[in-house]
Amino acid sequence: MIRSTARKRLLTAAALVTGVSLLASACTGGGNGEGEGEGNGGEARVLNVWAGTQTPMVANFNPYAPNPLHVTNGGIYEPLFFYNRAEAGDPTPRLGESYEWSEDGTELTVKIREGVKWSDGEDFTVEDVIFSYTNDAAKRDYLNTIEKVDESTVKFTFNGAQFTSAVQILGTTLMVPEHLFKEVSDLITFTNDEPVGTGPFTLDTITNATYTVVPNEDYWGGEPSLGKVRFLALDKNQSAQDLLATGKIDWTTMFIADPETVTGGGQVSLLNTPQDPTTIMSCSNAALGCAGPPTARAARQAVNLRVDRGEINEKAFSGHAAVASPSLALVGRDDRWISSEIEKESPQESDPAEAAKVLEAAGYTKGADGIFEKDGQKLSVDLISVDGWSDHNAAGDLIAQQALEAGVQINHVKITQQEMSDARTSGNYQMMISGITGTSLDDPFAIYRQWLTTEYTTPVGETIEAGRFNFPRYSNPLVDEAVATAAGTNDEDAKKAAYATVQKEIARDLPYIALVVNPTMSFVNTKDYTGWPSEDDMYAFPPSWATISNGVILSQLEPAS
Hints:
24 strands, Dipeptide-binding Protein, domain 3, globular, alpha+beta
């Protein structure tokens, strides 16, 4: 466990109470829910955030952990540069000031910001940067060396051209303090309850239901204007909606079928930025330990054909979702990268007859109860979603109904967010409804590398590290090779050819069955706080759960006068 010079934070041993009643006690007071006895306008004014965390809250701000608390990545620990996935453009300097690629893409020279302090008072140095890229939890296979050029400059060398990896190298790798992290034996599993970062905020207090952060007085970008920020834990979307409607939440991202119920009073505004595909993920690779019917390609293809996406959008997402693509690229924004060799959009209507043909061709026959079976085993699949996520829960119920009509039995089970996270990272699941975090640029490369390549997964039973998202355990040599080719070129035609290979393979194999593009509704308190992203100035991706962006936005907010 990392110990800083700051006082030990107390993780309370109070009884674990869930739901609105727990948070109501933490959000008493006037206006926006001040919890220290002062109402709006007081010095201790608190901005309340719900980013999806459930109770009991696990006190861990380890950026290498699979599921750190939301303020960790961006609010406490920072990358060298910030890539704004809401708008195309050059990255914004954070702990890095400038960078330059060699002509062949095998070397990258970065100048770091001088005069930065860690929140424990130690200097941020080139040595911290080198450690942050070379420790066991962070190092990538394509990195050969990173060396000190001078006190403010480092040079990376790679085993091949890595132009396309710029976002991951510069924008998603977080800087950590070498003087503390080098003492940790296992950087992935340790509990970091006293974080020391360079970011705009530092940890104040934490309980099993909330934690608060306060401005870092020595922040290199200037001390933030917010007095305090509280992150809440809730077990259901409805609880968050209730608190939002009553002014006890100031920022959250969640699906609300009728946004007018919370925006009608004029205090809360809606920012809708649909970018992330909602999918059915399948633990599909038997060679890496996946088990059950979803390891059969035909079973996944049958579900894909039987899903009625139009019905799911209308009934589960109230018509607010956008059309998804089997390429996992964003239709409209990423059209230039979607191969003409596949269907651009996932089918919106079901095709039960074709689904039956696929199963019969694979050796399945219908049993007396109408359920397909093979080798004496029914085609029965467990599908999980997070309990309380109303859109995903409704989608799961619909998928189960639709599949049953095609002779596939899907057992929809609702579990906690922590159970879902554990299932994804360990591989102990069959199918789940889960989103794919979209890319920081109008280019699907990051999805293809991080969510599809063998490098970014582990065998079932081994925890997938932070920053690696291949939860289906998908492994395809053709995809691995194509992604490596795309990483090593700046030629658009060469990238298109590589992406065409990826898309052809995943459209057939379906480790992810694309359902819809999530509406991504972010609700912000524009009455009491200014500085939010807006349609006129979308300086950061606005979801409350978005890593890196979370800290950037909080550092820009100010209480309204």
